[in-house]
Amino acid sequence: MLIRLNAANRPNATPVIREDTISRDHLARLTWIVSAVTGFFVLWVLWRYGIAAEAAARWPRWLGDLLELSTRAGLLTLSLLWALIAWQRRALKRAAPSARMTVDELYALSPRAFEQFVAELFERRGYTVEVRGRAGDLGVDLALTRADGRRAVVQCKRYRHQVGPDIVRELFGTMVHERAFHGFLVTTADISEAARQWAADKPMTLIDGAALSALSDDLRA
User: What is the spatial distance between Cα 170 and Cα 157, in angstroms, rounded to a whole number?
Assistant: First the structure.
């Protein structure tokens, strides 16, 4: 696997990563809920003003007025929720770093901000990214899906000390468990030669701190 670095034309300014915006997984969950509610609302409108239009004309006037008011309130609420989702997506996009960061700056990120930084790199290469980094993640910080449907897993390690073969073996075991076609280890630390040799004949990509620092938006499997 190849990692192409193309940071020569990037500005040297240090990006500011905001951690007060809604997280990616919460935003995805909110989007799913609002989408489901929107679907039910559309079905209600089709039924109320289509299938049941004639029957509705015979309803008591107060009931018709109440349902009309409820429908308008629902439309306004859904419009506001979709506007909120769009605003939060823009906020996450603005929060994502676009310039090169030093290894020290990467290490200084919180665990959540570091995972979002790595998630942005993969998203820019066309992957669909699910951020899982929390208790019970079974060793998967990011779950990736390529356009062809194949899945990969990512472990994000904000380490100072050198990463050895044990971490790489752990990642390989996670790949097998998740039935992923590829595994990525992304760390702020150095990676030992023994770890690289162990992964050499396996579908794995190891990205150390120096490579991650040089990486802007050209992470490519």
Answer: 12
Q: What whole-number distance in Å separates Cα of residue 167 and Cα of residue 163?
A: 7
Domain housing 187: 97-214
The two tokens of residue 153 are 């897993």
Q: For residue 39, give the amino acid letter.
A: G
In a domain, 145, yes or no: yes
Residues 54 and 74 in one domain: yes
- pLDDT tens digit sequence for 46-58: 988 888 888 878 8
pLDDT in tens, 154-202: 999 999 999 999 999 999 999 999 999 999 999 999 999 999 999 999 9
Q: How far apart are CA 189 and CA 211, in angstroms?
A: 10
- Is residue 101 domain-shared with residue 210, that is, in the same domain? yes
Q: Apex CA 185: angle with CA 183 and CA 186, to 5°? A: 135
Cβ atoms within 10 Å of 152's Cβ, excluding its own: 23
